[in-house]
């Protein structure tokens, strides 16, 4: 991270040039002299990157540090320093952070920190292994800046460049299948100016260092910069700024009389860990490369993102008010008014993402008495209330949020190797998700990532090329959706290795990923609600208790695929219709369910997938294969087939159609499989033409079939814009699910730019907020399609819900005059992803000026068809 927050009187800038003076002599006088039992208090002010720019983004917290004792780490005698949060002046036992510092060199050897989960706390560990000499270390947390410089021994010159290895795990031992990271760090000392000292005293309120001499230290890596001010005889820097958090030493004391430390590096009282031998991954790796992968045992649930423009969160809040007597709905309407002037992408995706990581998923409707009435909380209502509890969470975050007008605004941030390190610490080591803003532009699109795969191999020169796959829970669902609808994103980057470790700072996003890559990552530390009328304990009670109606599903996860195939909408040109599963596919004998993503989970058993297992987590042996947007573009561009397959229009290839007309396609495959039709219009915008939700898309071998939309008589409707339209037909041996496909099917009025939302009862619930105690019948919104239009809506191509950068990029790729290969697009080839499959394409022209009847008559004369 390259952003630095500026103090009111320019703490680290104003006047510093006037003191281009020599650093204080000697620097070692600032080295802390800890004693067992010693304690001190630090206050932090952290910028929360995930919340809306207009909201309060700076959160204040206090932390108590204490030297607990001495124990061996990596064969060295280390001081164990515990850090606990303070709340209301009282020390909280959890979450706890522990730091082990080499007693002789004051170099950090290990950091552990607790992470909240629905099942309690999990502890992540990072270990640090210095190079030839002890090194300054910057810890992994942003809201609790832990960094220690190296104060040289007396008589030794202060060095400026150091190196250390970071390992995700305890004792400096690298886990099998995980890479380590080598970091180069710069350290400089200088004399603070008088204005800086004055600022520390007056603006920061630091008075306890008296008249002691001060030194300013700057620690910088390729991704981070930390500035500190140290005082003589201080146990911790009196001030720290890491770009996200400012930390101030506010009190120094001792819980009990300090105890002298044992002799430096005395014989450990317990056996020291044995470090794993250095494994030179570069020498051992063949040209086929290597794979690192992991999956969280905590599966985040899909939920709605509650767009502020629609004001739909007011509905659940109104029911909450009716049951508690609060005024949360009024507060929401007053402080976050809905309407067309609100940017379309403004919403609560960050709060939903935090709730899906920290809270269990509601899975049943709850009913509560309210006077003479009964208030029913749907699954969507409960998810909405949990979302409201996390709108302003205190969180650790990494990377500079692009477009907020602060920081570096570096379009390449978050760097790939830093994201890699975070994925290791959260998903690989502790099996907890990591929340990521996947939109590199000004908008913020937060998703909880629960699985990743990194495939890397040597490339040109001394670089390695890596393909990154992220699996995350999607929020393109209805509020009452249950389970995890999967969203997939693929990226590419290059990096360098040194001694088998990734060289931190050497990585760069490449290809399409230069523009489309994660912007910043974060993990919630403490639940905080912006709305003062929301009380989390009350919400949790409502979600977990209450009366469950008899007709509520009892399943705690998404329903499984049906065992019997639904009625097919594929009408063969011969009298027979396929009613039996194909013999070739190895997938389950069913087509996509009403919720296709339900079947795309890489592993249903917690912990079932191990790191570096032969079977990759994103490609389980059975079940649908998730296709990312870049992979979809590569599939459309692909021109190869594993077996014979033909597709043709109902008229002929290259026909002209007018708006209001319909068309269908005929297909014939030499092998049985799953059929998909992707329509790409003249602007390069893709849409899923077939199948729609609930359709059985299996086709038998060697039969000519007419493919029409479900329950639509004529065929697929022809819509604009004018120009050439491609219909890409694909037959696969396993079912597919396309990332970003909307479910349930939206109406045409909802197919607009920006983040789309499904049709929900909450649209009327918020209008009925003034009478929340009455069970109002659900009224259909005015824009709801009438029954006689439902078939036409079913036939309308379903657009994909992708973030803006991704949407524009896919359009550019698919509208390019030259058809690009998968390698040029920046992803794996369809053959690697799908295995054996076949493809074909047919095209037609949309003439928006010609009447439909005229267009049809011209074609009829040529083909002899009516």
Task: Explain this structure.
This protein is α+β, with helices and mostly antiparallel strands. Helices cover 15% and strands 30% of the residues. It contains 15 helices and 42 strands. The strands form 8 sheets. The protein has a 12-stranded antiparallel barrel. Strands 16, 19, 20, 21, 22, 23, 26 and 27 form an 8-stranded antiparallel β-sheet that branches. Strand 20 and strand 21 (446-458) form a beta hairpin. Helix 3 packs antiparallel against helix 4 (328-335), helix 3 (314-324) packs across helix 6 (379-388) and helix 5 (349-358) packs across helix 6.
Q: pLDDT under 50 segments (min length 5)? A: 1-21, 265-284, 550-615, 744-789, 857-866
Shape estimate = globular
Helix percent reads 10-25%
Q: Give a short account of the largest sheet.
A: 12 strands, antiparallel, barrel
User: Can you count the helices?
Assistant: 15
Q: What is the CA-CA span between the terminal residues?
A: 65 Å
Radius of gyration: 30 Å
In short, what is this structure?
With 866 residues, the chain is of the alpha+beta class. It is built from 15 helices and 42 strands. The chain has a 12-stranded antiparallel barrel with strand order 1-2-3-5-6-7-10-11-12-13-14-15. Strands 16, 19, 20, 21, 22, 23, 26 and 27 form an 8-stranded antiparallel β-sheet that branches. Strands 31, 34, 35, 36, 39, 41 and 42 form a 7-stranded mixed β-sheet that branches.
